[in-house]
Known about the structure:
The structure is a homodimer.
Chain A: H1 7-10, E1 18-23, H2 38-41, H3 45-52, E2 55-60, H4 70-77, H5 89-96, E3 106-115, E4 121-123, H6 131-141, E5 144-146, E6 149-157, E7 160-166, H7 197-214, E8 222-229, H8 237-241, E9 245-248, H9 252-260, E10 264-265, H10 272-281, E11 288-293, H11 295-301, H12 305-324, E12 329-333, E13 350-355, H13 369-373, E14 378-381, H14 385-392
Parallel strand pairs in A: 1-11, 1-12, 2-14, 9-10, 9-11
Antiparallel strand pairs in A: 2-13, 3-4, 3-7, 3-8, 5-6, 6-7, 12-13
Amino acid sequence: MIDFPYLADITLKTDSRIVLLVADGLGGVPHRDTGRSELESAHLPNLDALAQESACGLTIPVLPGITPGSGPGHLALFGYDPVKYQIGRGVLEALGIGIALQHGDVAARGNFCTVGPDGRLTDRRAGRIPSSESAPLCAALDKLTVEGISLSVHHVKEHRFVLLLRGEGLSDRVSETDPGRTGELPLPPKALEPGAGRTAKVVGTFVEHARELLRGQPKANMAVLRGFSQLSQLPSFGSAYRLEPAAIAAYSMYRGLTQLLGMQVLPTGSTFGEEVETLAAQFSAHDFFYLHYKPADAAGEDGDFEGKVRALEQLDAFIPRIRELKPDVLVVAGDHATPALLAAHSWHPVPLLVHSRWTKGQGSAAFNERACRQGALGTLPATQVMLLALAHAGKLTKYGP
Amino acid sequence: MIDFPYLADITLKTDSRIVLLVADGLGGVPHRDTGRSELESAHLPNLDALAQESACGLTIPVLPGITPGSGPGHLALFGYDPVKYQIGRGVLEALGIGIALQHGDVAARGNFCTVGPDGRLTDRRAGRIPSSESAPLCAALDKLTVEGISLSVHHVKEHRFVLLLRGEGLSDRVSETDPGRTGELPLPPKALEPGAGRTAKVVGTFVEHARELLRGQPKANMAVLRGFSQLSQLPSFGSAYRLEPAAIAAYSMYRGLTQLLGMQVLPTGSTFGEEVETLAAQFSAHDFFYLHYKPADAAGEDGDFEGKVRALEQLDAFIPRIRELKPDVLVVAGDHATPALLAAHSWHPVPLLVHSRWTKGQGSAAFNERACRQGALGTLPATQVMLLALAHAGKLTKYGP
């Protein structure tokens, strides 16, 4: 609810601290055999104890039935209406690897892929080739200039790269070249609006250049592009909520997204344990911390029910360390559900827990979908979570006489 | 939902009667020792019995996390979006004491206060001086004319008064002079928009006049002003819902607010017992009654848990007398929560009960936050309560073919 029109009138600057722990893909659905979800199957002594002293509920990221990507899922939790505010995949990837995007740039997410002799895709990720093989290919593709537009190729990880277009008069209204499944030909880039013709043509030239240059590679013999996007203007998270926010996330996309919202992205390691130590080390320097936990989503995406259970148990083990810091408000939320049963993001409501000095006696017995549904917070749009966090932190004063 | 666009098409004129009993500050949070809220701690045989035959739920006055003042809290219950429709504090106070406000008038809430030798506030309420002392001070300050603007001072109660400005070209976009806490100097009134310069200057003259006149008073040696406001245009409650509404409230602010909505404000006494007898006496003359109960909020604001429990028990004792009148629909609601633990209004959802001939078998075991959360109505925006009341009263016909 960054758009609540009187937010500036009711936000207070205080010393209280909020930690928003986002467990990516947190929610699930019951296993067919046991009838218990991943959260219900996991042994979560610390999260359950926390839930007993918290106000619990469920969040709806976008709308019932709408499955969000990580971008909209996170934007919603930060209070940005994910239908009004959008961030393209290319922009997210670019920011995530530290590219200093300029307004007007167009970024696209690129995948090396494998095509057969007939040109049809046989592997959309080129066997997830190791970075040691893909980075030199990126270097070879880099630094092309077409019609006054400079194109650069930035390696991300394994088969993933970012294509960046910089120059005058670019548009991001260009169609994807990734057909989205094997057995199909890469698609030609097309202008989706009249002003995008030149951009589409430049992208087409890049695609042909890549086809020529990659020909003969054993795996990465072609590349596909999607998520053409430009920087959009998003309200500053810190200004809107009157906070000094910090983001702690090992994964590039979440770093990019929070940077775009104006959060200070703290240097951290590649594990959640390192993230938590970063939180501890920087705890006095900020009054809001976004802390990202990825493994539950990764296991869910793989359809690995047991793996997701273990990932949740591993998260649980870090809860005491976070509570030791005594944040005034600790929120545990998810950007979306990733049920192992679906092996994908889903539309299901996501467990939520808000812990503060005001929540004693309102708790739920456990932290899972079923218990949270009966919780004190009920089911609410994810966009309202920040208002609750601020209220519990004593950072919102009364609205109206 | 006074803005439901087809309200005029679906409202019916019938003989049925609705009583909306608003228990101010109704909701609470659990006591730290007992784990039970004020409602859960109180002995409420009549409200609990009523809840068992009613449809229960929780209302959200504005948004989760947003703490409403009494103005927005009441507007929401009457179906007015409290973000779209606003009433200034000065206007509310002025209407509450029976000032016949005209469009263009500017009203402000004034407080007598105490300042030290350095001019800084030592008591924002001048020790809540008795009306016998403050009324003569109001009379002395009254009837000033500055630059063609007539200023009048109207005593409210104890340290409170209304400053009314009447004349051409006034604006309510003037900043408050109350710094909001002791130890600070009163603030100079400033124009918040270009057209408010003259009004700010006139207010400044009044403030200096008050400073001179009050100098030497033992307690009320200065005055501060806030809530500069003008009448806004609000849709008529009676016209929108096709009702003949009456308001029964002992406290001035609620009388002022309902008058502004076009309700007939009935003369009544200063106690809830007198309010209920007014209801009984006028029961045949109207088809909608707003009945206000204040003591629960007052005790909550004082942080007096036991006092709030007693106030709720005192309300409970009047329920049989209200039911004797056999209203077709009896709604018990709150404009906001006032948990004793917070000693202030809060953002928490508020218990709601709707009783009609259609609610038997849908009841909750008791009338409190926990039971209502599981109730038949779920958790809903307070702005939707009037639609439910009208529906249960048989006053809404089918929408659409």
